[in-house]
Amino acid sequence: MEERKFYSKLCVARSLKSSVGKRCLNEFVPSGWDKLSYNLATILVKDKVVVAVNLRVLSNRCEISIAKDGVWLEEDHKYVNKIKETLANISKDAPMTFKQTHSREDMIDLSSTILNYCSKIIRNRSDKLRKSITENKDENYIKSFLEFVKTRINVDDIYNDEKIVSISTVCCEWDHALNLCLVSQILYVKQNTHLFSHMDLQLLDPVVMIQPILPWNDIVKEFVDQVEYGYLKEACLKDSMIKRNLKHIYGGINVELNCESSNEIYLHPILNILTSVMNHEEKRIFIAVSKRTCFLCDLYIRFVRDKGYNIIFSGSQKFYKKLYNRWKLPDRYKEEFMSFAQLELDQIIGNEIKYELIYDSSDDEALSMEYDEKEFERFKNMPFIRL
Ligand SMILES: [Zn+2]
Known about the structure:
Oligomer: single chain
Bound molecules: zinc ion
Shape: globular
Distance between the termini: 30 Å
């Protein structure tokens, strides 16, 4: 199938729908070595970038691959090298207690570097924590959390921005979900000292390309006849969400929908990592991602699992999966996956078009006869649910 057609359909699907409801997988809570990848993905997030991490433990060393949805800057390289060097230094002096590790100068220095690099995210989490305490102060879990805080610091420090390091450390002790300082990994460093002194750390380059896109009108006309097309376009331009999407994707809602255009597409970090480690002999591949996967990444992973790969990824498995029009196909299994995913895109476009026609033309006798109420109910109950 022509790639241009696939990407053009993706743009049309995205213009009509932001998220797709899809059966969820079980929530995966990382432990052991997976937790290190997970923590690295957490502390590598700056602003709103998405980061994906894979770690391979070999007999005498470990390999870490990291991808993000943007270019690696000088400060990112410095930051990653500092994490790598500190882990290597700690492993040279291991074993040591948790307390000893945390009172080391290099660990204190690393903690403050992490807090600085992730300051926006930490502020955001800290605000959420304060809000949750205020809103749920009568709940038992908040009461016991505050009791625990009292044993470590003054409870008022939670509301003091200057004490953010202390509260982060307390949260870390209380619940590793708020772990921002690699604490749980220290235990592994103790047991596997040699691995961190021989660490290969690779920052993967982003994979970006410019993709030509067919006009919105041309794709939509494949799904409707001339009469329906008129109704559909009118309905879409009346829908504020679709109108906004069209402007965003095609640059306008007039002549722009009739013109060929281009789109800068990029390989999402999880697939950048996945395609770079698929050649390894390990049967199990774990990828930690800092944000939940999108609809097409999820679909690709399911597709590759059916090929025999045991791929596990972190992140919440929410029912709704976002559609991104700048999503890029991986080279691996490209043709086969493109045909498979196109069926999904066709279904999304088809359902949304029918929804728009029914919703907008309920007064029109001819169309309401064609798409009667029964059919409307049927579409409403299909797995692709309109948000
Ligand atoms: Zn994705």
